[in-house]
Specification:
By secondary structure, this protein is mainly beta. Helices cover 8% and strands 36% of the residues. The protein folds into 2 domains: 8-129, Chitinase A, domain 3 (Roll), CATH 3.10.50.40; 136-269, Chitinase A, domain 3, CATH 3.10.50.40. The longest helix is centred in the middle third of the chain and has 7 residues, at 91-97.
């Protein structure tokens, strides 16, 4: 979804380097003299353009430009999800993200007086992440419900009419090329849940307008078993028999039924690591 890694020198003399999906490395002389807000695209992504008012998923790395100390960053925790509005993002970040494409890396330099920069001049790198699975389609078992995707990636299913399986099935539909999900990772994902028998949706992050981030240790057992060792960028169809507890993701009317989840894996972060997606 991004261009190749490179080191780019931009006015005001800041070197930004690092691979796509990794935390950036910034090199500049401190204290940096910042009098006006400056922004540039380090590389342009090849994904869809961000939609005004729609959700945007991004990582950021924020430094105090007076001494290059790291003030805040998301690369060792989980990405941020906001709406692409000035109200949700603030004036500077909104201006930096507006019109960008998924996969882009953006540099923003703002003076201390700028909105959201506190009492120090700031240097921020923002990586725009995908909101849906990205990878290669995988041949699917013919006995599983067919998944159809809307233009924005929202899934729906067509029931098979057959008896449901009695064991958990985790069938990749799209295989991404990102990192594998570890057993105690924090995973950012989109999902929709459907009844096996009727194909009706009963829960969806798509309907709420943004992905979710959870430690695999805190997710229902079916998610933990089905997503571990899957790769970022993948879409997985989980067939969950009623022997599995679905905890908070299960509405009362689905109790005792086999359900189908379609899960898009957008990012994964292992505890104690930095700069992985």
């Amino acid at each position: 979804m991004s261009a190749c890694s490179s080191a780019v020198t931009v006015d005001p003399e800041i070197d930004v380097s690092g691979d796509p999906g990794q935390a950036p490395t910034l090199t500049y002389v401190t204290p940096l003299d910042v009098t006006t807000t400056f922004r540039t695209t380090i590389w342009e992504g090849s994904g869809p353009e961000l939609v005004e008012g729609g959700p945007v998923l991004f990582d950021f790395w924020l430094e105090d430009a007076t001494d290059a100390t790291v003030v805040s960053q998301t690369y060792d925790s989980k990405p941020e999800t906001r709406q692409l509005t000035q109200e949700a993002l603030g004036e500077d970040l909104y201006a930096s993200l507006r019109g960008q494409r998924v996969g882009s890396r953006i540099l923003q330099v703002a003076p201390a007086s700028s909105e959201g920069s506190g009492n120090y001049p700031s240097v921020t790198v923002i990586d725009v992440l995908p909101l849906r699975a990205f990878g290669e389609p995988v041949a699917v078992r013919p006995d599983l419900p067919v998944v159809t995707l809307a233009a924005d990636g929202t899934p729906s299913i067509t029931p098979t009419g057959a008896d449901p399986p009695t064991t958990l099935i985790a069938q990749p539909l799209i295989r991404g090329t990102g990192l594998q999900v570890g057993a105690d990772d924090t995973v950012t994902f989109q999902f929709a849940g459907f009844g096996w028998a009727n194909g009706e949706e009963f829960d969806s992050s798509w309907a709420r307008g943004q992905p979710e981030s959870w430690s695999l240790l805190d997710l229902p057992e079916a998610f933990a078993e089905g997503l571990v060792e899957q790769t970022v960028g993948s879409q997985v169809e989980l067939i969950v028999p009623p022997t599995y507890s679905l905890k908070v993701t299960q509405s009362e009317e689905m109790s005792g039924q086999t359900v189908v989840y379609v899960v898009d894996i957008l990012a994964t972060r292992a505890p104690g690591t930095e700069g992985t997606s």
